[in-house]
Design a protein that fits this description.
52% of the residues lie in helices and 0% in strands. It is mainly alpha-helical.
């Protein structure tokens, strides 16, 4: 989150109205409802996990055992089991 000067961002009338409530303080203005990004969208980690899980499902469907997938992907038995038996 970066700092922005209110004089640059807001119209003068709105700034005067806001100054009735807060003067010389930082105010956080949240995004509108429904605009928020989901976890991992900015960093790309969400997509990485989606691709990794798809690969694990594919390998499992080709006959690789859960034990082998555990070692290959450094995940627990329960984590691999959740991935391969999920309905995605």
């Amino acid at each position: 989150m970066k700092y922005m000067n209110a004089h640059v961002v807001f119209p003068k009338d709105l700034l005067r109205e806001m100054q009735k409530y807060v003067q010389g303080e930082m105010v956080y203005i949240p995004n509108p409802e429904g605009v928020r990004k989901k976890w991992g969208e900015n960093s790309g980690h969400r997509e990485f996990l989606r691709q990794r899980n798809a690969e694990i499902r594919h390998q499992f469907s080709e006959g690789i055992s859960i034990d082998q997938l555990m070692v290959q992907h450094s995940l627990s038995y329960d984590s691999i089991k959740k991935i391969v038996y999920s309905k995605k």
